[in-house]
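Researcher: Go.
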Amino acid sequence: MTSSNRAPALGFTSDNIAGASPEVVEALVAASAGQANPYGADPYTESVERRLCEIFEREVDVLLVPTGTAANALCLSAMTPPWGNIYCHASSHINNDECGAPAFYTNGAKLVSVDGPAAKMDPAKLLEAARAKVGDVHSTQPACASITQATEQGSVYTVGEIETIGDACKAANIRLHMDGSRFANALVSQGCTPAEMSWKAGVHALSLGATKNGVLAAEAIVLFDRSLAGELAFRRKRAGHLFSKMRFLAAQIDAYLKDDLWLRNARQANAAALRLMQGLGGIEGVEVLGAPEANIVFCKLPEALIEKLLGAGFQFYHDRWGKGVVRFVTAFSTTFEDVDGLVERARAV
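Model: Structure:
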């Protein structure tokens, strides 16, 4: 992807800093004309539901919400009682970056961290944790597990790894939720089908991300366990996330899914991350910390180089994960010129 009519972008902090795909903006404009029934009884919402059933190769229930935090917390609220345990990796978004929303929406359920390499839960440790103190009235009880795809470290669960976690959840009699804020990036990285990376591997509910990948502000809760749909409908309304003009959320997701825009966007973001990793890896003093599996690159840079890049206007997170460790995130709108601009400046320094 190239763009010769603008200066290279300097922001690599997050894929949230990107705008929206033109197709999504155009769909919003089109949806604003005329009238449509409210609260999801509109043609756009019906189209989204139909597309997602086709994409996941089965009947699913779909609830649209404006944010990933709402999608995650609402899913979890229907999968656990207030005295339940939600098992997640210590570095997961629900554990660190949602301001206690899962506990708030579940009316007090407990997040229990389960370790594993590369920000991925260890299935054996998950099963061990989920079998502890079962039936003990003095302890919170196992209810569900949540995995992030792709993870906060940019790693991706393989289909086999998800299946193993799904088997552990089945053995422990708990449900499995997937925080798919970067589901599309993980999907194109793995080269599998959406069904294989979700319900066929044991996932009961998916927070299908879109905002990070070209949508203005919309996410989809996709329920493979359709018994959750009735309760979630009430919880969404009670939480204030049932839009009266739902067509504006649905129009975004509809355009996102149409003609595989979501997959094309994810491929561009992933390709930009790979190009960035390859470019930085050839610079003396730069240590790339693992090959990117999605659109996130971690590396260790000399302090002087970090200061020079920041001074030149480049934006990225640094020193959160250790001295000299930086994170670069590419987006669907990140061009190869954007990447090359950063690499060239780093090489010059």
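Model: The domain at 22-260 is CATH 3.40.640.10 (Aspartate Aminotransferase; domain 2).
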